[in-house]
């Protein structure tokens, strides 16, 4: 009893962790299910059919490819635009600074549905055809702020004297940026880019409003919730989870290696 | 070589003197593309939406700005239950996220030791899998007659929640409880991460010092840990409440027509009914409601340096 009292926070914390992980376990387990109807919500029979034929559902892998493509371009766009803003905010003092800061903050502080709806009214009023480009524009827009925050955090902890030292050694501005500034800021830029990729790839609400008849992967999943969910969706969900965990673990290993070599 | 010979003079200065105007313009050139993007695709749309909300007309004949402000009033009188429900569900989910997230954030920050990184990975990993798929998984977990619902029944939990109006009979799916469960689940990482960040900054020696002064663990928590973690609590609750109040995915997938939130209404007005003025007005009312709630909350919570 006294053990429980001493470790109450551990028990409660692990229960919360279980709450977070249980759906992932369910998704994995049900990727080996052989459903009897259109929906994959109840366990019927063990089968590896979906794993051997992950693209066996019409249009699913096409939507997956489209989502990856959009996420890639949105990540590049948001990282370049957001990275530039982050550098300007940290490294320079200028008059419009606080205005810029609030313009960056607002998209993160607004319910997604409001942003999604207002962007749709813009496109409708201008008569823009909804599809790949409108999705890309929207994703770049809402990922931008998150990139700024991630890069800003890293650039703020950078020592400006390193760049001064590079200039003292007669490095030009381009050389200083490429050989000194960029490598030091890289972890922050990478974090921002990863966040942007995940946000774009997984976005449903903004895409739902601005995609027209274009189907991204989240749109496909949404539709399948009404029409019938193929097991392959669970296969993709499981694969994404595993890949994400592997990437994060690889990142941790690389970071700890670097720390070790730096210590020697 | 120059470094050793010229000690006090700041080395960047000659560059500044050579091209002062160009250098002063650098931050603006850095900002220009990104800010332009935000102005055109974030700020301008809000202006268009404001104009749409005071238009009248129909899809066939076209819409026109007639300053028909009554749309706002009509939207509010017709959909106030959904507004209220959104704030209620989002508020409940936020409180639950805080209650569930705090112990885990505390565990990772102070008790995890070398497990810390693994636990953090487990919290962040769901971010990278499709949240729609995970939300659909709750349909399986909360299935009628499934082990979870059976257990909740056995311990009379559902008696309590149905007395609170959160469930009906012996099922969880398609009730407010299911929607709140989904909301809590989906936004929990947004609570845990800021909580962890602010807890991690606390010097553990403060706990020892409090203990040396004969404070009991509960007192240490109440007088030291909790106050110092307030920035995390404030940003965590905001990061949970704001997106949850506009969400319509959980209400759609796990709820019923009786659990529709304002996001569901905006979605169907925009994409199915095609009543753009009403949809735009609803969206603005939601924005105003969230802004007011958040402003009042921040004033009361008294934290200025957010995010």
Automatic annotation (TrEMBL), chain A:
CDD domains: TM_PBP2 (cd06261). This is ABC transporter permease. It comes from the Bacteria. InterPro entries: Bact_Polyamine_Transport (IPR051789), MetI-like (IPR000515), MetI-like_sf (IPR035906). Residues 64-254 form the ABC transmembrane type-1 domain. The keyword Transmembrane helix applies. It is a multi-pass membrane protein. GO terms for cellular component: plasma membrane. One of its GO terms (biological process) is transmembrane transport. It is found in: Cell membrane. Pfam families: BPD_transp_1. It comes from Streptomyces genisteinicus. The lineage of its organism: Bacteria, Bacillati, Actinomycetota, Actinomycetes, Kitasatosporales. The chain crosses the membrane at residues 7-32, 70-90, 102-124, 130-151, 177-201, 231-255.
UniProtKB/TrEMBL annotation, chain B:
Residues 83-297 form the ABC transmembrane type-1 domain. InterPro entries: MetI-like, MetI-like_sf. The chain crosses the membrane at residues 28-48, 87-110, 117-137, 173-196, 224-244, 279-298. Signal peptide: none annotated. Keywords: Cell membrane, Membrane, Transmembrane, Transmembrane helix, Transport. This is ABC transporter permease. Its main location: membrane. GO terms for biological process: transmembrane transport. One of its GO terms (cellular component) is plasma membrane. The keyword NAD does not apply. Belongs to the binding-protein-dependent transport system permease family. CysTW subfamily. It is found in: Cell membrane. Pfam families: BPD_transp_1 (PF00528). It is a multi-pass membrane protein. The keyword Cell membrane applies. SUPFAM superfamilies: MetI-like.
